Amino acid sequence: MIQAVAVKYLCKGLFVVELENAKGRLRVSKPGRIHSSDLINKIKANGIKTVWVDFEQSDLNRYVPDINQRNPKPSKSISMEVERKRAESILVKSKDLLSKAIDSLYEGKNIDIAPIADLSESIVDSIRCNPDAIHCVAALRNKDSYLLEHSLNVAFLMVSFGRHLGLNQQVLKQLAIGGLLHDIGKTQVKLEVLNKPARLTPEEFEHMKLHQVLSEPILDSIPGLSDMSRQVSLLHHEKLDGSGYPKGLYGDEISLVGRMSAIVDIYDALTATRCYKESMSPAAAFKILKSMTPYQLDTDLLNEFIRDVGVYPVGSLVELSDGRVGLVWESNEASFLQPIVKCFYSIKYGRYTEVDMVNLAERKQLAIERGLSPGKENIDPTPYR
């Protein structure tokens, strides 16, 4: 799968086959992977504007050592108010498109990748401009639409995570496609198991695990689907110690993309409301994810994921030090502990209050006391999202 990549988006591990400058495309005498930052700088210094990359031969695992050093968080280029409108439109289109794709599979038809690829470009562009917007509008979830909304959120989180790691936009697009399709095998699982309003029995869980195996022929039937997108789907239940499924891969057998998708999938599942459980606060989810390192999940990647979404993620419910409760509305690039919070409830008085947008960077006498789970606190944030 050979695609053009702007030189500013280059990273180690990409397999370069051709270069392009103002005069046209140039063949590379010895195609190969970018192995150092010095080579990237050399390409830029030679006036190259575009690089043609073979993503099938690229190895993004080579990027892993770089994430041990804290990357500066990419800046937001568009305000929350402006980008939120586009994010709301993207969310509506995403749900409609993914719902149609799922219906097609139930009817025995193939998935058309073209509209999904177009949608993925929109997702990547929105998150590039301001990731808070799409995470904020996606936080409103319906427990009866778990498969649909989980797939969307995994796509959003994978793109945001990849952006944080510095992966280029073509890679981010493949991550988005993979996220949207990552649980597609569940369309082949028995409905009484998939929609069971209670925890699964051991036998039912073994049947549910087959969705990973059942995903492969569906993905194989989609022309033009990249190997990177396939990895998001096929590797998100693999664990570093070999205890995962379906193949029980171990250590370096799991790619960077697979390690990322494992973290994202578990996090979103823990923080979602299901028909048989309430959502967990992000802080509680992070605690569980931390307990799975270093044996099952990649420690360095998990740390970077937490830095990306923030200790108090956009869209989550928090209590301030004055007893007010609100939604984290917008992140603070200078300090992840001082976001903007949309307050609407008082624990002290046990009632909903007038909405107050609190910028903790400016109201230094206030701080976030703790993250909350809406269901456990019996507080409904839905009207305030």
TrEMBL record:
<feature type="domain" description="HD-GYP">
    <location>
        <begin position="126"/>
        <end position="321"/>
    </location>
</feature>
<dbReference type="InterPro" id="IPR021812">
    <property type="entry name" value="DUF3391"/>
</dbReference>
<dbReference type="InterPro" id="IPR003607">
    <property type="entry name" value="HD/PDEase_dom"/>
</dbReference>
<dbReference type="GO" id="GO:0008081">
    <property type="term" value="F:phosphoric diester hydrolase activity"/>
</dbReference>
<dbReference type="InterPro" id="IPR037522">
    <property type="entry name" value="HD_GYP_dom"/>
</dbReference>
<dbReference type="Pfam" id="PF13487">
    <property type="entry name" value="HD_5"/>
</dbReference>
<protein>
    <submittedName>
        <fullName>HD-GYP domain-containing protein</fullName>
    </submittedName>
</protein>
<dbReference type="Pfam" id="PF11871">
    <property type="entry name" value="DUF3391"/>
</dbReference>
